[in-house]
Amino acid sequence: MGSTIPQATSSTASLPDASSPNLILTHPTSAERTRTWKLTHAKWAGALNEADYLAREAYMMTVPLAKNGGLTHWILTIAGLPPDERPVLSSCETLRKRGILTRGGGDGARVQEGMVYGIGSVFTDPTYRGKGYASRMMKELGAKLRDWQRGGSSPPLFSVLYSDIGKQFYARAGWAPFASSHVAFKPVSGAAQRDQGSSTQLAKPIGYHELAELCCLDEKLMRADLVRRPAGKTHVALIPELDQMLWHLMREDFITKCIFGRTPTVKGAVAGEPGKRIWAVWTRGYHNGLETSKGNTLHVLRVVVEDEKRPEEELVDGFRAVMQIAQTEAAEWNTEEVQMWNPTPKVRGIIERCGLEFEYVDRDTSSIASLKWYGDEPIEEVDWVANEKYAWC
Q1: Smallest Cα–Cα separation from 282: which of 376, 342, 211?
Q2: Could you give all domains of the chain from N- to C-terminal order, each with its CATH number?
Q3: Cα(245)–Cα(372) distance, rounded to whole angstroms?
Q4: From residue 263, how far is each of 125, 249, 260, 284 by CA, in Å?
Q5: Is residue 161 within a helix (H) or strand (E), and if so which, with residue range?
Q6: Reduced to 3 states, what is the DSSP secondary structure of residue 311?
Q7: Strand runs labelled E in 23-127
Q8: Spatial contact of 263 and 256, defined as CB atoms under 8 Å apart
Q9: 198: confidence class by pLDDT, cuts 50, 70, 90
Q10: Distances (CA, A) of 214 to 206, 274, 297, 323
Q11: Maximum separation of any 2 CA atoms in the chain, in Å
């Protein structure tokens, strides 16, 4: 989804100021939601035509992470006007997820679980841009989420979004920018078949049937990792559970079915024996159509090293085999590159040893990972663990 506020193109003098008490943050009707989707089609549809884009947005309300109140649409509008006759001054959506944090370290570590909200599809109708409505919406939303869907449970731990307009706009509303880098690999047709005598035999494709077991194990490994981390910072993470991965993969299936008439069966790859494995799960994104592969990306959602104590040199062959499958899939599915967000120091060391060509990129303007903290500690004391693509929305 991403979070984008384009530059102002017009203004409407009769509308209330962004600081007006007559503005409210509320939920759109079905017609208002569809109206907004039609406006965002040109910005976010990629290779989808308008009908398919509208169908995708409706479909994404039904997938496991989003259904039963998991996905909520928000609008900023004028109080007192009838629904379907009021202006949608700015809009966005939130996706409820599960998060975890630890304070302290080792035997004294204190673990807390709770809700986390991902924010996406931030948009202002061109008619209403340049009046500060998106800023007003985000400030109200940040405060609203402290108690939203809380019931009798604890307040949310934090919320995240991914800015496509740099670091400052959302920081002013309370979402602090975090590390936003990636390693890029080029697609290579047939890369997974080139070393039949060695490393590629280590890796096997991951499909839907393997995901449940791997995600369950990943959550256990993450919990153990957070507890082991040293005191002095609060370590936070979004849990890489199955529903979180399915949100990406089911979205991918809808898109690829529309534009290719088929869906990919290879959702990742795994190498090694249980307890010593390394694996990656990925998804494909089509941001600029199919006339060229430019802008289309195979995104690695998550990389897992089961045994973090294993020396890097023992993991190199398995990692290379996994990435060769990714490169092959990237070539087959018309993407420009393979991206792996914010690899850990361990994975970065393996990348540098694996012999595959890669480029390291620090992002300054696009997909800036940003976090609004609801705890008592200053944001400088918060360490976002596993700041990878699976957390994006």
Answers
A1: 211
A2: 23-177 (3.40.630.30), 181-363 (3.40.630.30)
A3: 22
A4: 33, 10, 8, 10
A5: strand 158-163
A6: coil
A7: 23-26, 71-78, 90-103, 110-123
A8: yes
A9: low
A10: 10, 10, 23, 18
A11: 72
> Is pTM beyond 0.85 here?
yes
Q: Could you tell me how far CA 279 lies from the centroid of its own chain?
A: 19
Residue 42 one-letter amino acid: A
Distance CA(176)–CA(160), nearest Å, equals 9
Angstrom distance (rounded) from CA 71 to CA 79: 23
List the structure tokens of 353. 């040893």
Q: In what order do the strands lie in the sheet with 181-185?
A: 203-206, 268-271, 278-285, 297-305, 337-341, 181-185, 359-362
Q: In the predicted model, what is the mean pLDDT of residues 290-303?
A: 93
Secondary structure element (H or E) that encloses residue 318, with its range: helix 312-332
Q: Tell me the residue type at 68.
A: N
What digits encode the pLDDT tens for the residues 236-260?
A: 999 999 999 999 999 999 999 999 9
**pLDDT at residue 7 is higher than 90:** no
DSSP per-residue string spanning 331-374:
HHTT-SEEEEES--HHHHHHHHHS----EEEE-SSSSEEEEEE-
Coil, strand or helix: which one is 274?
Answer: coil
